[in-house]
Amino acid sequence: MHKQRVVVGLSGGVDSAVTAHLLKQQGHEVIGIFMKNWEDDDDSEFCSSNIDFVDAAAVADVIGIEIEHVNFAADYKDRVFAEFLREYQAGRTPNPDILCNAEIKFKAFLDHAMRLGAEKIATGHYARVRLNEATGRHELLKGLDPAKDQSYFLHRLNQAQLSKTLFPVGELRKTEVRRIADEIGLPNAKKKDSTGICFIGERPFREFLNRYIARTPGPIKSDKGRVLGEHVGLSFYTLGQRQGLGIGGVKARGAELKAVQALGQRGVGEHEPWFVARKDMDSNTLWAVQGHDHPWLQSTVLQAQDCSWVAGTPPDAGMLAAKTRYRQADAPCELRGVDAAHCELVFGTPQWAVTPGQSAVLYDGEVCLGGGVITSSNAPALS
Fold first, then answer.
1. Is 333 an active-site residue?
2. Which candidate in 198, 307, 333, 343 is catalytic?
3. Annotated catalytic, 100?
4. pTM for the full model?
């Protein structure tokens, strides 16, 4: 195997630590880079980049590699955070982790690594890269651990980026990664996985967003037009949201109950939970429905724009599978009306709470083909 200079993004977590260890074991010249992407209130209890850097430095010491601290905060604010705020202000729900991967980890970081003379970069993502000998193109594959696969977040990577990228832990299950970390005495072997958005961390999301987006209260209405309460601002809610509506004690009236049951929702009772189903920006109204299976939460067709295709060209129309959110099983669908920037997906089974701003990501078996940002779906219109 050709020995290479590989720059590893060390986050302070166990996955990137084991990534660096595996590459060093294989004989590569490994350099660690700690990326600082966020500076606002960085010393708070929620934003722990100082602690993460200490962990990353301790890992580098155990493995026996150099580590460099690089600040990408300005790039992050311009390329990721500004877009994140624009989308929320427009009433959509963006996925900043996807944008962060495309713009920071595999662009700004990759460029920096190349300046250091790297032949490849590596991260602790659970995904795989494979060169298709027949086409000469690099393919993005799901990680082998189905519970940890992160190809959804990486679907905007292109051929140039994938050709320079290694994902060593994508070949392993998380339990094996933890075992290796423990075996070689990594100080972060038992460190809890990060679950927060890439720059927000574990902080209360609404409290964070409130610093940057003004609250514009308005009515929360049921699908029959009854006012249920008041929302704090449409930007602070997402489709399918159940918690934080402040209408948990509101019961459906007899007419509403009969109406939703007539639509085929067997078993919907007056104490069923309420879910966000629509956001009407023009009237500043949040629409909520009762029952997880309400028709307003079901879609069989979606449109996506700003598409990005791993192969560089869109896949042929036909039967594939897709995820409309990260924690979701692949759903069989038909790809229609596809071009470089737009696609339409038609599902045999209704998809729940298809959310504008989120990404629809396409798969052909274990191969991630790319995807786009959801703009609309065919969930029933406001009555």
1. no
2. 198
3. yes
4. 0.90
